[in-house]
Amino acid sequence: MAGGDEVRWDAVCITARVPNHAEAYRKELLRRGPALAALLLAVSDPELSGVDVANDGVSIGSGGATLNALLLVAEHLSARQAMREASRLEQMIEGDNSVDMTILQAKRVLILHTGGTNQRIPAFSLLPGTHGAAQSTIDLLMANLGRLAKRCPPGLFVVSSQDSFMGVSDAFCERFGQAAGEKGSVTAVALARPLEEVALKYGAYQLGPGGEVRQVLFKQSLAQLRAASLPGSPETTAMACGVVFFESQAASSLLHLAFDPAFEACSYLGIDNGAAPRGFSLFLDLLASMCTDVEYNTFCPEECGMRPLLWRATRQLRLKAVLMDEPSQYLFVRSTRDFVQLLGTLETAHSFGSYLDPPSEHARVVNSVLRNCQIAKDAIIENSSLDNCILEPGSVCTGLRRLKGLRVPEDVQLQQVLLQDGRCCLVTFLTNGTLGQSWQQLLAQTGLTEEQLWRANEERELQTARLFPAVSSLEASLSPALAWVEYVQCCRETPENARRASLDLWRRSWSAALTAAERLSLQQLATRADVQAELQWQDCVAADSNVLRARQLLLLQKDAPIHHILEDEVRRGRTGLFDVLDAVAGAGDADLDVCARALAQVAELLALMAGPEGGLRSGSARNPQWRAALQGLGCDRTRAQAVQQMRDVRSSWIQDGPVALMRAARHYEAAAQALILRAVATCSQFIHVAPAAPSSGWQVVESPARIDLAGGWTDTPPICYEHGGAVVNLAVRVDGKRPLGARCLRMPNQLELVLETWNKDLGPDVPPDSRACECRSLADLEDYNSPSAPAALLKCCVLCCGIVAVDGPALPEQLRRAGGGLRLCSWSALPTGSGLGSSSILAAAAMKATLAAFDLHMDDESLIHAVQNVEQMLTTGGGWQDQVGAILGGAKIARSGPLPLRVLAEPLPLSRDFAEALEQRLVLVFTGRPRLAKHLLQNVIRQWFSRAPEICQTVRSLVSNAEQCADALKAGDLQKLGACLSEYWAQKRVMAPGCEPKMVRPLRDLPGLLGFSLCGAGGGGFATLLFAEGNQLQAVRTALKEMPGLEDAYACAASIDHQGMELRVQTGAQALADVMGALGRNLRTTSDTEEGGIILNRMAPVSVDLCNFNLARLFVAGGPRGVGSKHESPAHGRDEPHRRLRGLAASALCRILGQAADPIFTP
User: Where in this chain does the record put each GDP-fucose pyrophosphorylase domain (predicted)?
Assistant: First the structure.
């Protein structure tokens, strides 16, 4: 629980009247994990053995309970300190068991009182949390106390668990911390409340102008409180809260008090020495002795008892109170009536942590399961499981266990309380806390007597009245526990004669049973209740609700968040959600998006169970044990079997610890990705391949890059079809050039695939890179879906073009049928991780070139969808906007909707003047750091599958901003375009926190900037800068030199490519001329001869002309100077590299001669 705004307590001690209650609450806190406290203790009030604490026990009070707990904490902390300072043997020899009286210095200690005989059962109530979840008041209390304690020095907090915070402001924490920082200070929390609200109900502090407490008042009349109103506010007073802080010196004073012989009877120390329990009040005695206006004679009217001792021990301490800024954030939940009133004030969803079928929009339902129930307006149900019940207006049900057919009358409150002997009671009241009658009326109409309700020495009040029969079960319709429910109904009968008849029938039916049954009072229930069983029942209802709600959210409420349910299951140590997620994923009639989300939630559940000890969330997912199951997900007929196979492997791995859990999570993410691939494949119905006119030679495709202006992330599967996407982007040339392309040559006589990638970064001093991959069998293609495999992208392109299939006949046979092998080369002049859509654009270019080489053609829409299949095959999971941005020229907005996935692009016509103005104001800056798209993508998809509210809202905003951006482009509005671009970047930062490197932030502060965004997913790559004035390229280059962390950055001009991706045919002669020309330029202009060698190696066996023949011959004869260079090459003098190049040129010349068919080449 300890987070950035919290502290880890050195010790937390829970107190209760009954030993097993204290232990039950300790176990409940222990479930929050070790981050809560280094030491977690429980202690009950010391009582005489054999005494019924509900009737005869002498309470030690809240003050005595505080001393008792503080003594226990000091003993344990002293023992731990001694263990650290000495060996176990030394301790045994010395026998040192004393308490270190300075042990509380520099320690943060919390004493948590869970209440006396008038407490709620259990003391921890559930309130609405975020995203429809329920959260315990103890969790709220601990979280906000942690924030408060962080601003305070070490010391002791004494807190009532019946009070809590919805939140605490930074300003209040700061003011409280300042007041608490004084040495020896005691500081309390107070609320400014109207006098009428406090009078006769609560305690209050009379405050001085500096916050000093003048008096502690308890349940005073309105007139008395008016005299103690807040300075400057005559109609309000400082209501006392159950939070008090003792600075370490004041806490040490309390510890010394615990060892005073006069106070030993307040602790187990005195009881173990044979003393009778004695007690005092924390507020009315201890804190009252510290008030400035309290005098000895009024505080100690008699020179006996404990007050004179308290006066002398604590008078030097001074009490202050700090008022909360927002009193509504403080919670009092000391009774069910408080709970009902609190729910009425909270502006939140009516149902939280609950499953309702059918749903209800009127009732407040907390941590419950309700099936087929009729729920009237303003009814409240908590921690209950009901079936086919009727709950009338204003009724309250608490802790009802799997009851059927129950009718709860209007304004009646029912609470089922489990007892330690296995029986239960049904506490029945009207919601005003009574049975709606005087005691005389009740006794007269029921036939009960005072002697049956109270003992002789007891006050005639509700707390002590033995009204509620202890029964073994409430399920029987004739259970005496239901007698009071029927009694209320009888009392409401009209007319009078009907009411009398009903009451007469009630007496005949129930009087004897009530008389014979053991009946308990509220005071007895408080000590005899089985708190552990009550907390377990809360947990049981939560488990049932989570399972049912998870299924409901997956199948019916697809836009609702689910992560909080998973977190709750893991926190409670349960695994029941696996069954429902498996069932949903394996259902044959479930939609693909539902199945994929169910598998993704299994992955999330496993990762939460693994925790930080599991390692990194992302990683490989190709273990052979999972392979068959992952393959089986590709078919509806085998999906259920595949899910079962995965379940079997998971059941084995789940026993092997956190690392195995995280590995299993990765495989479930791969399973979800497999179903996303199937969903994306529905776009295949929009792919049409047509014959093209026969053409020989190299099929060359040149392509612009794209810059995204708005809407990115909404094109990403599954967002693009589950929500719908809209993206605006622009086809651009970088520094006037198309930086991406591919070419393909069909080789009729060579039945193999030669796949080659060529990269030459636009940046300075970046060496070129070339990789070739030869595939002669299908085994060479099996790693197509591994992005790091050689030429993986090109392999996927060839497969998606349908030239070959990995599950077909032998590769040479498939190529023979297709018309020959192929040589496919892609190139990029952009740095890796540019964010300009390189991989998808290269896929489009490669597919377009490959199809043309085999005399086939796709229109633009078909090619857009085909590339989407490539991205999914490659498991990079990218969206569709990259290929749209480059295949189609100029500006456009593209949209997608529900499955089947179809992307429709709308061109955005730009006027010539606006296009020129836009080009002059656009600057691209490579940040020097590649963007990490896949890492960011995986996190976004996880958040989307969990339906994190901030992600869902941002997706809606992204689509809206894209439409506004399209309008800005059509209107030629640069100001609005810049605003949309900057808003887009703000949205990206919400989608993928951490996508903005620190060194990039100064770019946003450049003068005259209208808009800014990192391209693509962010994290690095290129940035798009839109300026108010044109021709800013040189100014940006100058500014980059002064920006720390951007030493490797460089700026480029961006011009709009209005044509988009283009195909041309290159003859063998033209191809070789280009190669040799490039080689010549290289040898004349660069000192690095490696590029020249790479160019020569890339020469394919093609037909050539005399020009190329003579050029190659000159290279062989003379090297660089032989081509007529007037200046000595920078490479001159390095003879060995030149000899190597001449050798390569000679090899090229031999290939040329070998291919020559024209007499011109005859020697």
Answer: 103-472
- Segment 323-333, tens digit of pLDDT: 997 877 888 78
Dist. CA 820–CA 752, nearest whole Å: 8
CA 463 to CA 830: how far, in whole Å? 80
User: Are the beta carbons of 108 and 9 closer than 8 angstroms?
Assistant: yes
Q: Which tokens belong to 493?
A: 């009968």
Residue 285 contacts residue 274 (beta carbons within 8 Å): no
Nearest-5° angle of CA 490, CA 496, CA 498?
Answer: 55
What does the alpha-carbon distance between residue 165 and residue 332 come to, in Å, rounded to a whole number? 9
d(CA 47, CA 33): 31
Instruction: Give residue-wise pLDDT tens across range 524-540.
Output: 998 899 999 999 999 99
- Beta strands across the sheet bearing 385-387: 355-357, 369-371, 385-387, 403-404
How far apart, in whole angstroms, are the C-alpha atoms of residue 1046 and residue 1043? 6
Percent of the chain with pLDDT over 70: 86
**Mean pLDDT of all residues in 607-634:** 92
Whether 1135 shows a pLDDT value over 60: the answer reads no
| Burial readout 1076-1097 (b: 16 or more C-beta within 10 A, e: otherwise) | beebbebbbeeeebbbbbbbbe
| C-alpha pair distances (Å), 820 with each of 395, 747, 754, 772, 1156 | 81, 5, 12, 19, 21
CA 995 from centre of chain? 17
| Residue listed under structure tokens 């601003």 | 151
CA nearest to 868, candidates 833, 896, 831: 896
Q: Is the dihedral of CA 149, 153, 154, 160 positive or negative?
A: negative
H or E element at residue 1066: strand 1062-1066
Six-digit token pair at 1079?
């080689």
Rg value, the chain, Cα: 39
Q: What is the pTM of this model?
A: 0.79
Locate 136 and state its tokens.
């315990």
